User: Fold this.
Amino acid sequence: MEPKILHFFLGATSAQGFVSRFDQLADPEAGWRCHIIKGGPGTGKSSLMSRLSCQLGETAGLVEHIHCSSDADSLDGVIFPRCKLSIADGTSPHVLEPRYPGAWENVVSLCDCWDKKRLSGQRDEIMALSKRISSCHKSAAGYLHAAGSLLTDLRRTAGEAVDVPKIVRYAQGVAGREFSRSTGHAGHESIRLLSAITNKGPVLFNETVLTLAPRLYVVEDHWGVAAPLVMEQLRDLALAKGYDVISCPCPLFPFSRLDHLFLPELGLGFVTSSPYHSIDAPAFRVIHAQRFLDKTVLASRKHRLSFLQRAARNMVEEASATIAQAKFLHDQLEGYYIAAMDFDRVGETADKVLAEFRKEMLEQDCRL
Assistant:
């Protein structure tokens, strides 16, 4: 049987700089095992994780692919939730170091597979490229900081039109229909990023929406002021009823705004459609955010709101272009490492990791 594959990010450049949620990879208190890969660019980290997913996906049943926001086609991690196993790239910008070495995490090193003398001889070129890449990412963060400031002003301006009690009543009504049972204990919240600003522009994984939520509520929110409140209310109500949820924050404001919410047990999802990410999935119900807004207040401020939104979008576009430039330079940097790698030894390391994962899966009998 084909595995279900969910696509997410766990790190992204935001209005606050690079934000990592790689703390969500695994839970040591729940018996998880985590593998951390150490190695340079182009040394085979993403390929190793792709191989694990391909060869173990059927056994695992459910696989999460964690993508790199700097290179949306590359993997930063793979999670096998039913088997309580995960593996991730532990290098910058989301540096991972073992907290409980051996007891929880194992380090997979590819550093012994490269020609140290060759790389040392190309030190100047490698350092120069690394510094240029870092400069690009700093510039991208600056553009997104500017976008965040503009959007904060927009949402403060439009926020005065929001009827919060009406949102609360609406969420309670939806919860009364959809969250039918109560377990007597709180549900568990997992954090994932469904979208990010990447080298390809804003990317949202519509295929994940389709896989998680056959029944989908879409909140269309042009100004982005009502949907986060709807999502937060629904999340709190679902958790109180004992449902496990996947919360997907806004990549620009990952600690203060919630864009999407999923209840996998119910095959139910609530997503935000906005000028920054449209949802390409059939909706069970569409909710127009205007129902929660005072149209008179919005009309009096429409010119300013439109200006702020255009300016913010320009900043996001500049950030994406700068991340794409960083990716171009990163590809050049990878070339030095690829030429210095002994990929036969990398393959031997991958074989060992694959055998370890197979053993863990057999012991846990994670096939459903």
Remarks:
- The chain has a mean pLDDT of 94.
- The chain is about 45% helix and 25% strand.
- Residues 270 and 331 are 37 Å apart (CA to CA).
- The longest strand covers residues 71-80.
